[in-house]
Write a structure and sequence with these properties.
Elements (H helix, E strand, L loop, with lengths): L1 E8 L7 H20 L3 E6 L5 E7 L3 H9 L7 E8 L12
Antiparallel strand pairs: 1-3, 1-4, 2-3
């Protein structure tokens, strides 16, 4: 199943900079692992903001929930999710 996921990150200013960098490092490694597995198909930064729009390709809602709650930055995220389906005019064979 494909999902469009919008993530807004708001790290409290009270978190020490070293801790923030460590969490961001773990976040990057985790997200890149998911991209290599094909579960996190696309990720785009929203220009000028600490936000992103991503496309996930997962088995079901439960798998998406597990992935998102496993993100190291998850405690500081506001997440919006929209399920997607293939558009009949798409020329892409890998749209599910």
């Amino acid at each position: 199943m494909l999902f469009k996921v919008e993530m807004v990150i708001n790290i409290p200013s009270s978190i020490p900079a070293a801790e923030v960098q460590e969490v961001k490092s773990r976040e990057k490694a985790y997200s890149q692992q998911l991209q290599q597995q094909g579960k996190w198909r696309h990720i785009w930064r929203i220009a000028g903001k600490y936000e992103n729009v991503s496309i996930f390709d997962v088995a079901d809602n439960e798998e998406l929930h597990e992935i998102l709650t496993g993100l190291p930055l998850y405690p500081w995220m506001t997440i919006t999710i929209q399920p997607l389906c293939r558009h009949p005019s798409s020329i892409r064979d890998d749209d599910k």
